[in-house]
Design a protein that fits this description.
Elements lengths: L1 H15 L5 H15 L16 H7 L1 H5 L14 E6 L14 H4 L3 H8 L5 E6 L38 H7 L5 E7 L14 E9 L5 E6 L10 E4 L3 E6 L7 E6 L4 E5 L3 H42 L8 H25 L2 H4 L19 E12 L2 E2 L10 E2 L3 E9 L4 E2 L4 E3 L4 H4 L18 H6 L2 H4 L4 E6 L6 E10 L4 H5 L8 H19 L3 E10 L17 E3 L7 H9 L4 H4 L4 E2 L1 E9 L7 E2 L18 E3 L85
Parallel strand pairs: 16-23, 22-23
Antiparallel strand pairs: 1-2, 3-4, 3-9, 4-5, 5-6, 7-8, 8-9, 10-16, 10-21, 11-12, 13-14, 13-15, 13-17, 17-18, 18-19, 19-20
Protein name: Dedicator of cytokinesis 9
Organism: Canis lupus dingo
GO molecular function: guanyl-nucleotide exchange factor activity
Length: 705
């Protein structure tokens, strides 16, 4: 080993000590110098400024004007056309307040307000049809279909994983597959019970419209079939029970036959029916083809016989139509000529700019919600003389809104409904209707159109949903006049025994509470129902509101409501919630385009609004559209709403009082932080007092300010 290593090292040394010639040494030294010297410095590319089109036109004005092809470079002088388009709205009057523009202190605000009422100014290009890719000109005419791509059977690649049955159904043909018993087809051997073999048959339509009945050893129809029966050669299918039960025979044109058998009589009849239907279709197609051929020959003969008689009388019209046909043919032939270019067939014509239309107010799926009745098991006559209908013993107030548990958010404003009987409303102290749905319009024009009495107690609302899906719920929250805790106030409604005495007791307490605290509310119950069947926006009209669940004093927020709705389809969890005996009747329906007598969320009436109509007024409820780019749209109407949600009140650190039972929150806008500052007068004035119990989280109450 040592000797081998020595020999190897000596050889390597000898190789390193080879004496070189002077010429070789010179070349080696020059190579080393080139390797050590840095490479050539690359010059930076010159930055070429884009061509200034207007500057070139000015500099070469004389040359361009003398050019015979100057029209291809210059814009036509009469290309621009301006027009004024009247702004069309769906409202009876402008959505902008009458004095908004005068009271605006900023020029920017003034110009923004003008955009809601000003007309549209359109700029049209006369020769726009001849701009763009030269292979697409003119680009506003109807585009021709692309040249068909010829596909041959040799070039087709069969997808092994694709189900041939689904492929046949996509072509619109008849398909069927299943297990059958196939008799021996050898005519030399008689068909017996033992000669039947179980095979998987698959009926398939080919590209030319004909049908084949292929059979396999197993259900893997992607493999090559063991055999095929061509139904084009079949003359009929009849039942044949001579050899085997549930057997049928396919008679072919060459007087041969195929004997097949099913497992049951129903399956046998189904196969016979389908096969006979295919034979009938083949026969009708052959007869139609024959009739078309005969009629074509008759038409050619009649044209030849009558061509000489009518040519002279219709010569002017014929010449005119011929010229028009030639012009059209030249235009189409030019486009077809460019279509022969493979690159032209790859052009995407859908990217052309569509026709510009003015911005419109867009809505999602619109749903009409009609509140019919709210009744509890605890009822009696509330009149002093006991002469009147039997109603609820105290006033209740319903608030409707939409919740999306898929995205865990509330997607609409609140719609407040008063379903109380007239006699029950008399229990309350006189309050301003501004407490309902954000207030009343202060515009004198709207006050003449909208009667206060008709808008005071709305029962119909229109909700809008931009992204409908089955996980959207319509939630009804029920409130009552403030009187004690929620548990104490709901206890009489959860019992079904001796309701008359309990009703009189509750009525007495309710009258006292309504006189003292009629404008204060407290949570009482809630109910929910699904809104859509699927993502297409089909309403689930068969669904009904759930039972009236007692409101939990510790779970009043929107987040708590979303948690309840997440378990809404779990009966085992919903059964644990305390139920109040009562019924809420609310129906939903689609909104037609000509729906009458409704106002938007700002109380602006529509054009089809009838002032003297007895039809109840319907209110649009504003949707909280998700902040998604595909749903973003420009504002087309003046909408100045601010929704305030009191989430909680923290008073643990204060030392003014030891215990707190009832707390009212009054929300106001003020122009400064000084103590003597006055609240601002808003367009839609709304002040709502909300009860907060000690340790409770208040339910969100949006109000329009």
């Amino acid at each position: 080993m040592q000797a081998d290593k020595c020999r190897t090292s000596s050889r390597s040394v000898k190789k390193d000590l080879v004496i070189e010639s002077p010429l070789q040494r010179k070349d080696a030294a020059q190579g080393e110098m080139e390797a050590e010297s840095p490479g050539p410095v690359l010059a930076k590319p010159k930055l070429i400024e884009p061509l200034d089109y207007e500057n070139v036109i000015v500099q070469k004005k004389t040359q361009i004007l003398n050019d015979c092809l100057r029209e291809m470079l210059l814009f036509p002088y009469d290309d621009f056309q301006t027009a004024t388009l009247r702004r069309q709205g769906r409202y009876m009057c402008s959505t902008v307040p009458a004095d908004a523009e005068e009271e605006a202190q900023s020029l920017f605000v003034t110009e923004c307000i003008k955009t809601y009422n000003s007309d549209w100014h359109l700029v049209n290009y006369k020769f726009e049809d001849y701009s763009g890719e030269f292979r697409q000109l003119p680009n506003k005419v109807a585009k021709l279909d692309k040249l068909p791509v010829h596909v041959y059977e040799v070039d087709e690649e069969v997808d092994k994983d694709e189900d041939a049955a689904s492929l046949g159904s996509q072509k619109g043909g008849i398909t069927k597959h299943g297990w059958l018993y196939k008799g021996n087809m050898n005519s030399a051997i008689s068909v017996t019970m033992r000669s039947f073999k179980r095979r998987f048959f698959h009926l398939l339509q080919l590209g030319d419209g004909s049908y084949n009945l292929n059979f396999y050893k197993d259900e893997k129809i992607s493999k090559e079939p063991k055999g095929s029966i061509f139904l084009d050669s079949c003359m009929g299918v009849v039942q044949n029970n001579k050899v085997r039960r549930f057997a049928f025979e396919l008679k072919m044109q060459d007087k041969s036959s195929y004997l097949l058998a099913a497992d049951s009589e129903a399956e046998m009849e189904e196969w016979i029916t389908i096969l006979n239907k295919i034979l009938q279709l083949n026969f009708e197609a052959a007869m139609q083809e024959k009739r078309n051929g005969d009629s074509h020959e008759d038409d050619e003969q009649s044209k030849f016989e009558g061509s000489g008689s009518g040519l002279d009388s219709y010569l002017p019209e014929l010449a005119k139509s011929t010229r028009e046909a030639e012009i059209k043919l030249k235009s189409e032939s030019r486009v077809k000529l460019f279509y022969l270019d493979p690159d032209a067939q790859k052009l995407d014509f859908t990217s052309a700019e569509p026709e510009v239309k003015p911005f419109e107010e867009k809505f999602g799926k619109r749903i009409l919600v009609k509140c019919n009745d709210l009744s509890f098991n605890l009822q009696c006559c509330v009149a002093e003389n006991e002469e009147g209908p039997t109603t609820n013993v105290e006033p209740f107030f319903v608030t409707l809104s939409l919740f999306d548990i898929k995205y865990n958010r509330k997607i609409s404003a609140d719609f407040h409904v008063d379903l109380n009987h007239f006699s029950v409303r008399q229990m309350l102290a006189t309050t301003s209707p501004a407490l309902m749905n954000g207030g009343r319009p202060s515009s004198p024009v709207l006050q003449d159109i909208l009667q206060e009495a008709a808008m005071q107690y709305p029962k119909q609302g229109i909700f809008s949903v931009t992204c409908p899906h089955p996980d959207i719920f319509l939630v009804a929250r029920i409130e009552k006049v403030l009187q004690g805790s929620i548990t104490h106030g709901a206890e009489p409604y959860m019992k079904s025994s001796d309701s008359s005495k309990v009703a009189q007791k509750v009525l007495k307490n309710a009258k006292q509470a309504c006189q003292r605290l009629g404008q204060y509310r407290m949570p009482f119950a809630w109910a929910a129902r699904t809104l859509f069947k699927d993502t297409s926006g089909n309403l689930d009209k068969n669904a009904r509101f759930s039972a009236l669940y007692r409101q939990d004093s510790n779970k009043l927020s929107n987040d708590d409501m979303l948690k309840f709705l997440a378990d809404f389809r779990k009966p085992e969890k919903m059964a644990k919630l305390p139920v109040i005996l009562g019924n809420l009747d609310i129906t939903i329906d689609n909104v037609s385009s000509d729906f009458p007598n409704y106002v938007n969320s700002s109380y602006i009436p529509m054009k089809q609004f009838e002032t003297c109509s007895k039809t109840p007024i319907t209110f649009e409820v504003e949707e909280f559209v998700p902040c998604i780019p595909k749903h973003t749209q420009p504002y087309t109407i003046y909408n100045n709403h601010l929704y305030v949600y009191p989430k909680y009140l923290k008073y643990d650190s204060q030392k003014s009082f030891a215990k707190a039972r009832n707390i009212a929150i009054c929300i106001e806008f003020k122009d400064s932080d000084e103590e003597d500052s006055q609240p601002l007068k808003t367009w839609w004035a709304s002040v709502h007092k909300k009860r907060l119990c000690c340790g409770f989280t208040p339910s969100p109450k949006p109000r329009i300010l």
